[in-house]
Amino acid sequence: MEAAGKGFADLDPVFGEAKAEWSHSSASPASPLHQFLFHARALDPSCLEIAATDFHSHTFDLKLTVLELEDLRDDVGIGGSWFEFLDYLIASLSSEDVKLVLDSPAHKSKGLPRISLSLNRSINSSANDVMASLSLVLFGAFKQKQNDVIKGKEHSRQLAISLTSEKERCESLQRQLDSCSFSKMRKAPKLKGSDDNTPPVADTINNLDASLVSKTQQALDVPSGRDAQPVKAVHRAAPVNRRTKVRGALLQDSKDDDGT
């Protein structure tokens, strides 16, 4: 009977290599051992199967219910919730320190909490079933990983295509932006003449002002040698046909006018 809120419905298969060794108390000859593979998987939401085999003469398996694992949890002495214990069990089986001791009774390890499982030896057709089951589950996990890799590569390929397309679009927009900026620069009015010898407008105005001031100053200034003497106005003789009399003044004609 499954305990409330407990089970293995979402448990993924766990695979690994077990380091096999003979027990020191074993009466069997210490013959060389082959490499062992093992797996742990959920047969159903309430039953966990653990199997190990060298695909030769040694095959073992064990089926544990939720209640049996609860008893194992008490023996190991691990507190916390059920899911914390299940995580600890899976982490222990996924580590590189999984050891398979042949012909050894189950015992509780000293020191840090260590899970010890007593597997049952399988023989004949039962052993063949265990090996076939492990092989098929291992192949199924391999296919799943392979599909995940294929999907990942396809996703990466699509991202690469999208990245290339986006890069080309950005480069096209940049070219259009550069073209618009160049056109605006050509159409913009020039603030300075194209001829470097042409002075700026402000300098031309300043030069004109300076010229006007200079001419005005020349008209007002008196020569330096005559600063102390009054300046007499020089009146030039007007032509004959323009002679007139001016009140209080005598206009002098030239000698060619009347012979006097």
Account of the protein in words:
With 260 residues, the protein is an alpha+beta fold. The chain has a domain at 14-22 and 31-127: Dna Repair Protein Xrcc4, Chain: A, domain 1, CATH 2.170.210. It contains 4 helices and 6 strands. It has helices at 66-76, 82-94, 124-187, 201-220, and strands spanning 14-22, 36-44, 47-53, 59-65, 99-102, 120-121. A 6-stranded mixed β-sheet has the order 5-1-2-3-4-6. A hairpin with a 2-residue loop joins strand 2 and strand 3. The radius of gyration is 57 Å and the shape is elongated. The model is unreliable at 224-228 and 243-254 (pLDDT under 50).
Short description:
This protein is of the alpha+beta class and about 260 residues long.
Task: Give the arrangement of secondary structure elements.
Elements (H helix, E strand, L loop, with lengths): L13 E9 L13 E9 L2 E7 L5 E7 H11 L5 H13 L4 E4 L17 E2 L2 H64 L13 H20 L40
Parallel strand pairs: 1-5
Antiparallel strand pairs: 1-2, 2-3, 3-4, 4-6
Write a concise keyword list for the protein shown above.
alpha+beta, single chain, Dna Repair Protein Xrcc4, Chain: A, domain 1, 6 strands, 260 residues, 6-stranded mixed sheet
Largest sheet: 6 strands, mixed
- Low-confidence runs of at least 5 consecutive residues: 224-228, 243-254
CATH class descriptor of the domain at 14-22 and 31-127: Mainly Beta
* Cα shape: elongated
Could you spell the SSE succession in H and E letters?
EEEEHHEEHH
**Strand arrangement, major sheet:** 5-1-2-3-4-6
Structural category: alpha+beta
Number of helices: 4
- Give the N-to-C terminal Cα separation: 164 Å
CATH fold-level name of the domain at 14-22 and 31-127? Dna Repair Protein Xrcc4, Chain: A, domain 1
Question: Percent helix among the residues?
Answer: 40-55%
Radius of gyration: 57 Å
Number of strands: 6
Region (Disordered): 238-260
